[in-house]
Amino acid sequence: MSTNNDYYIPHKATWPVIGTGGLLMMLAGFANYLNGSSAGTAWMGLGLAVFIIMLAGWFTLQAGESESGMYSTQVGISYRMGMMWFIFSEIMFFAVFFGALWYTRNLSVPWLGGEGTKAATKELLWPAFEAVWPTNGPGKVGGNFESMGAWGLPFLNTLILLTSGVSCTWAHHGLLAKNRDQLIKGLAVTVGLGLLFVAFQASEYHEAYTEMGLTLGSGIYGSTFFMLTGFHGFHVCVGAIILSVVLFRSWKGHFQPENHFAFEAAAWYWHFVDVVWLGLFIFVYVI
Amino acid sequence: MSAVVAEHDDHHDHGPAKGLLRWVITTNHKDIGTLYLLFALAMFFVGGAMAMVIRAELFEPGMQFVNPQFFNSMTTMHALVMVFGAVMPAFVGLANWMIPMMIGAPDMALPRMNNMSFWLLVAGVLLLASTLFMEGGAPASGWTLYPPLVLQTGKALPFAIFSVHLLGISSIMGAINIIATIFNMRAPGMTLMKMPMFVWTWLITAFLLIAIMPVFAGAVTMLLTDKFFATSFFDAAGGGDPVLYQHIFWFFGHPEVYVMILPTFGVASTIIPVFARKPLFGYSSMVHATAAIAFLSFIVWAHHMFTVGMPIAGELYFMYATMLIAIPTGVKVFNWTATMWKGSMTFETPMLFSIAFVVLFTMGGFTGLMMSVAPADFQYHDTYFIVAHFHYTLVPASIFILMAAGYFWLPKWTGHMYDERIGKLHFWLSVISVNVLFFPQHFLGLAGMPRRIPDYAVQFADWNMISSIGGFIFGASQLLFLYIVIHTIKGGTGEKVTSEVWEDAAKHSLEWTLPSPPPYHTFTTPPTVIPTEHI
Ligand code: HEM
Ligand SMILES: [Cu+2]
């Protein structure tokens, strides 16, 4: 029977308050910026800097503790549960935007077009409106636009992310087989593919804004398109940063076959980002 | 390896850090629990002060003290402060204090994150409170923040939205911590079906929180982009729909009310058996009813939207689904009653509050059932009837049980006994005034008085005045609770309390096997005997 003594309970944590202060500064600064105050951006930058310092400091501390063997298996289980439920909360966050897409496409846009009991409303208010997707609504908000095709860059990006999922798993096999070379190469390829994905998406956005008239302001199509792909792209960036940290630690000789929570967490996160992209590809681009 | 173990062995001898800094950097579940509880108590009085403004304005017809804009800011901020600043943090505080002691764990599973969830809560509430002093005033759209109205908020809008984000992150971190603690930190022999009900209800509540807080965050993010970045989520001109917001909000909002009531159920199921001197009746049915309520809470949200113009199939579905909730809820009420049946009951203050909870919560459940009837709700919706409904489910339920928890565990936390006479006085004043305050609101609502309106037709004058008088007495009575808390912390009646505090309490739950007050670190060696009287 275990004693609870080998469950490591840290004392006197300073990073959490520092991180909270950074977040608060960042968000208050952002709010001020949105309200048109000139000081807003400076506060945002400062808050972001504090936040990044906190992340670096906190993770360095944790990595050091982990490498010096302070975490028992039970502690590892707590971390894994933490990561799993964090990813679940992220899934729910994406679900909101997928839900909004589903609702507008299948319910509210058809209603605007007079479906169900809404025929008279439509005739009186916007007789010319036709409920077809993509749309920017009866008010043609944001002007004429072209919708984004699926089989160009987006399809390429799908292949890229899928490949990166494979390379990530390959790296994991390397780690388990104590093949550090394979671990480092696999991770480097994964990060590289992630960056390539982001670069392609940036060029896609550029084309949308400069040549297709498609912006965040292009009615409900533009809103759902950019919010879904934008939040996803942001998550790809975060995932790539996490993987880079793991790559750096692997290169420093961290992680053992039986002790590599950070690697697992990063890999789970990456696969999650991957799966969200598949959803996006199908529901935003293809259908 | 053994060297390392020895090294952190001496961690356990560390007491708290010196001075005020102790509270800022603490990772101790008891410290953090105390912070949460005190913060919640403070916010209870802040939110209460806002309620006093509302009742003062409604004391008589006509405009008396505040302008309509500020009145609506008060209803909005009162709700947000009470929900996110008082009730939820109070239960998180109880979770922090009690769960590790109830399951025989040395602390919460993720102590550093625990610290961060508390400070993020403070940051979120600070952002929210700051909106009171901004150009254009605090949000005045009601706590539901419906567009398009909420988009007319002045400078406060982005602050309120970011406050929701911070509160959301805080809640999610807290919930993750609770789940990891319960799944991973139980003492050997503490099987899931031996856990005290309070632990069970929090486990399920934590699932709810992780599922819904991101949804709320998503909803307000869309508000932000609609206002500042030209999106059209909630704007029909661009093909969006304001009703979409309502769906998303209530997908969060309905489970959210259960976030506030499930731990309430848990505490009630903990207190009642102790003072009835009987095991809890139907333990496993309690567990299953809690899970059933949590599941149902995800599929009934549009009962808040019966009048919004949903297709008839939607109205019917949400009506019947909502009615289903009454079944597991009824199971619970019957179980509490059966627990008291033929028990050798005594009526100390925690028990008094718990009994009042059973009776008055049932009232709130019944009005809920009335409103679940879609065609009838066309009459009740957005009137004082619904205000009466949810206040019955929140004030003489969640708040009363929080008071009960305070009386029940204060002697354990502080090692001092509270003054039973003042406790009883507090109870009787509260239970009478809360009914004077909220019962007449049923009549007002049925007669058609709308909610969130600073002025009203003279026909509503009498009941409003009575309700306000009840409100003032209720508000003032809570100062007694404040007094008792301070008095008890400072030494209380001077009576020495045993580790059990209440007769035979240790048969029910592990915290009563520890000294009162418990040492800074408890259960560094897991307990060997698991109490099962509560089952
Ligand atoms: C038997 C269980 C319950 C049923 C059937 C029920 C039903 C309802 C219905 C139909 C409404 C919408 C009324 C309207 O807007 O016209 C409502 C509103 C509300 N209920 Fe319940 N309810 C129940 C229990 C609870 C509990 C346990 C709580 C909280 C602890 C609660 C809190 C609320 C709140 C806060 C609102 C108002 C939200 C708002 O519009 O601001 N209810 N309830
Ligand atoms: Cu509801």
What does this protein look like?
The complex is a heterodimer of chains A (287) and B (535). With 287 residues, chain A is mainly alpha-helical. In chain A, 74% of the residues lie in helices and 0% in strands. Chain A has two domains: 1-71, Helix Hairpins (Orthogonal Bundle); 76-97 and 142-286, Cytochrome c oxidase, subunit III, four-helix bundle (Four Helix Bundle (Hemerythrin (Met), subunit A), Up-down Bundle). In chain A, helix 5 packs antiparallel against helix 6 (180-212). The longest helix of chain A has 40 residues, at 73-112. The mean pLDDT of chain A is 95. Chain B contains 15 helices and no strands. Chain B has one domain (26-513): Cytochrome c oxidase-like, subunit I domain (Cytochrome C Oxidase, Chain A). Chain B has 535 residues and is mainly α. In chain B, 66% of the residues lie in helices and 0% in strands. The chains are: A mainly alpha (287), B mainly alpha (535). Chains A and B meet through helix 1, helix 3 and helix 7 of A and helix 1, helix 5, helix 6, helix 7 and helix 8 of B. The complex binds protoporphyrin IX containing FE and copper (II) ion (CU). Copper (II) ion binds next to helix 8 of chain B.
What number of structural domains do the residues of chain A give? 2
Secondary structure: number of strands of chain A: 0
Which ligands occur here?
A: protoporphyrin IX containing FE, copper (II) ion
Going by CATH, the homologous superfamily of the largest domain in chain A would be Cytochrome c oxidase, subunit III, four-helix bundle
Subcellular location (chain B): Cell membrane; Membrane
EC number (chain B): 7.1.1.9
Catalytic activity (chain B): 4 Fe(II)-[cytochrome c] + O2 + 8 H(+)(in) = 4 Fe(III)-[cytochrome c] + 2 H2O + 4 H(+)(out)
Transmembrane segments (chain B): 35-56, 76-97, 118-139, 159-185, 197-224, 257-275, 287-306, 318-338, 350-370, 390-410, 422-443, 463-486
